[in-house]
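Sample entry (272 residues):
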Amino acid sequence: MIRRWADRLSPVLVALFCLAPFYWMVVSSLRRTNDILDMSLLPSPFSLENYRAVFQPGNGFVRALGNSVVVAGTTTVLTLIVGTTAAYALARLRFRFKRTVLALVVSTSMFPGSLLIVPLLRLFTDIGWINSYQAMVVPNLSFALPLAVWNLTAFFRRLPFELEQAAMVDGCTAGQAFRKVILPLAAPGVFTTAIITFVVAWNEYLIAVSMVNDQSMKTANVIVSQFTGQHGYDQPFGTQMAAGVIVTVPLVLVVLAFQRRIVAGLTSGGLK
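Predicted structure, serialized as tokens:
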């Protein structure tokens, strides 16, 4: 009896634990500035002044949202192009040290991002990439590609090689067999990889705050952390909470809308 109740309650408790910070962020964003330290579970009175403050022209939040879309979208597209072709080659081609190559690709994701800041800053300064989109996209690629290659390699390995052979017997070249037969079948894995890559690139902060100091090129995460209050020195917690909700909600909606595809992609690939 106790075990049955524990089995039922444990998922609920885990969900409450994960959602509690987001709930508090939403509630705090709906309080008035004078009530921001109130500990009640619901805002009273209800106020939208923090959301109006987020979109004031002086904050540059709308431009920052556009920058985040550009950086995360470009990173996702390039990761899929490079990751899909690399994963297909690792899954299908036979060559020596193939497992070693795959292990090296995955091992590159183990380096702490903070250790890469100084050399990247020096390199991008020398080649004139500071305050540019590529200064954020290229490092994000190095973080996203290992996971994409690993996941897609496992996915391609599960597809029978006879499908490509049958396509080539019908007149397709190797490239056409990959594009017209294998790639559509791998859509769940590709879609899952795209969602994960976009979320990782959207939430990236360390590279963005280090490589960009031009206000018009900063991403949403950086702009939110640098919001200033009415007097320029106080911390506008309510406005930051409202901006956090605006930045987070699109990702939550995308994950909820495509959760079945994401689970299907993860369980069919290598992240079981």
